[in-house]
Structure formats: C-alpha cells, structure tokens
Amino acid sequence: MYDMLTRNHVIGLLAGGRSLNSVSKETGISRSAIRAWQTRLEPRPHLFNQAAHCSASTDTPAYAYLLGLYLGDGCISPHPRGGHHLRIACADAWPGLIEQCVAVTSYGRHWTCMFPQHGPGKKHERRIVLEDWQQEIVDAHPWEFLRGLIHSDGCRVTNWTVRNGKRYEYPRYFFTNRSDDIRRLCTDTLTKVGVRYTVLARGSDPFNVSVARKESVALMDAHIGPKH
What we know:
Layout (H helix, E strand, L loop, with lengths): L3 H12 L4 H8 L3 H9 L20 H14 E5 L5 E5 L6 H6 L4 E4 L2 H4 L17 H9 L1 H12 E10 L2 E11 L3 H13 L5 E5 L2 E7 L2 H10 L5
Antiparallel strand pairs: 1-2, 2-3, 4-5, 5-7, 6-7
Helix pairs in contact: 4-7, 4-8, 7-8, 8-9
C-alpha cells in the first residue's frame, strides 16, 4: 500500500527521464506496480504540491490527520540513498486505521520539511511546537487533527460504575502521551471545538486526557468514533 505522495514522486522520476528499472531499484517498488500507476486512467489526486515549496499542501484535511498520526505514533528516519522514511505504527488489530492512514511506511524527500518537529531523541524529551503554517491547517481542520491523535495514541472505551445497586456503562475517550507539548496541542484543539476534558495522572505524571461528559463524547463520536 503506497500513498499518493509516493506514487506522484515515482511518476515524477519517470517523467524526468529515469528508467523503470532504476526507479524500481531506488524506491523498492515493483515494476508492475509502477506500470499500473503509469497506465491508470483516472486522475491522480495530489496530497502535496511537489512543484511548490515543500511546506505547501493542497489537501490540508489529509495533512491535519497525518500530523496527528505522526505526533502520536510516527517517526521519520533517513534513507541511505537520500530522503526519508515516514513510519506510522499501526497495530494489526486496527485494519481500518491502516487503510485510512496514508501509508504505514512512506518514502519521500520532503518529510522533514512537512514535519519540522522531527529531531534527535524521543518526542517527549524535546520541544514540540507547530509552525505557523501548521497551526493554520490545524485551526482550519481541528477534527481531522484530533482524529489523527486519537487514532494514534488514543482510544474509545466503555467504562462502568455502580449506582444504587445497578451497573451503568458509559463511553469515554482517552488520549495518552508523555509529551507535555503534544498533550497541550490536543487539549487546546479540544477546547476550540467545544469538547470538555479532564487530565488524569498515571502515577505522578499527567499522561492521560479524558473525555467523559455525555455531550462531549457525543461530539467526539460524531467526528471521530472508535478505532476499527
């Protein structure tokens, strides 16, 4: 499964005069897959405008979702031939997430431009701040950003309690991340869309953002829903 950015990158290499064999060897993509991309008749949607500045995005909702995934369970690593790999950790238990994600692994030369939060060490050990252009995208598409965060480091669960001898069940959303900055990005965005939350500690560390109020859970269900 390859994302549209990877496909467009491959087609761009071929359009620049590269041979099918050389592109296949460089990218690790089979020649049969590349041929299929060359001969497909329907228009190819573009995730990013590669002819423009590498931070320019034509599909900003998709970028907002991918940004949330990256901040939660993503990493960027260098490719030995140049460029970088973007990897999103999706468990086999969530095939719907893998299908909705751009790709589990994607090669490109601009991932570090698209995600300037990349750097040495773990995310929770360094400062995570959005660039102005990223914040503009998140402000324009807050639910897509939140969906990415929940689909990476969040969940929807069913809790229960006993009242007057009867068992009551109620749904609840959690977002768990060790980075204070990433949790703040989550809670700031929740506030903007009208979702009320609480921050719960795991031991002495406030790792968990909880959404349990009925009206806020209903709002989350309308825009995010459980993992699948």
